[in-house]
Amino acid sequence: MGGQRVRRLQEEAGRRGLDCVALVPGANLFYLTGLSFHLSERPVVALFPVDGPPAIVLPGLEAPKLKGAACELKAYPYTDEEGPALAFHQACAALELAEARIGAEGLRMRLMEARLLERYAPGCQLVPADEVVAALRVYKDGGELARMRRAVAVAEAGLRATLSQLRAGMTEREVAGLLMVEMLRAGGEGVPFQPIVVAGPNAASPHAVPSDRPIRPGETVVIDCGATVGGYASDITRTVAIGGLPEEMVQVYEVAREANAAGRARAGPGVPAQEVDRAARAVIEEAGY
Known about the structure:
The chain contains nine helices and eleven strands. It is α/β, with parallel strands linked by helices. It folds into three domains: 2-137, Creatine Amidinohydrolase, Chain A, domain 1 (3-Layer(aba) Sandwich), CATH 3.40.350; 142-243, Alpha-Beta Complex (Creatine Amidinohydrolase), CATH 3.90.230.10; 246-289. The strands form three sheets. A six-stranded mixed beta sheet has the order 4-3-2-1-5-6. A hairpin with a 5-residue loop joins β2 and β3 (55-59).
């Protein structure tokens, strides 16, 4: 599977006028190679030339991971004592990247990796290549869909287990920690982001950070969480209540539920997203909100 994906990447990159695609640790590199690394002070860059086998520059301590790669990669390892300079020089020279047009991840590649490529592939041009990989990843195979569905199921199972233990007086941070544990117990391999658990006035901020504020009776609690399974992440948001709710909040809930149903009913193949949005907003506006 990895070899097929690399070939498709090379074909797509060639069609877009690139000589090579450079990837750093993240979802795209995992998609092509099955390898996971952390972005750190030790640079890791995988190079996928359009007309030759791929290579990777990486710390020597990470080299054992290559045994499990989904595709063949020519390794250019380096030690902390040596630093990455020689490895980048050797890789760029072997792949003949001088004056090449190299596609890079505009949202992920750091200045450190970019400067190393520019120095050891003199005259190269770094251009955004996010759409190149996206063109491949937009189509999911059966295995990918299964992992995505499993990631959702894990998050939902962890959330259900957490809600069964949720009590007034627990802090937002305490519930967030419990949620992480329960998602791991449910089969998650990790979390794509730290869970958000916020209540009362904090719940008005969509991306607030859990605090030591105790959750009080009668408050709504917003929970935003996700789990990672096989390299694929889920992301769900739920709002729950501790104790009874004021009458207006019950009405707001019903309006939101009806708006959600209207949007889902309008959604379908070929339907612009803005039409789905309008269908949901119409219910909310008609209710006076």
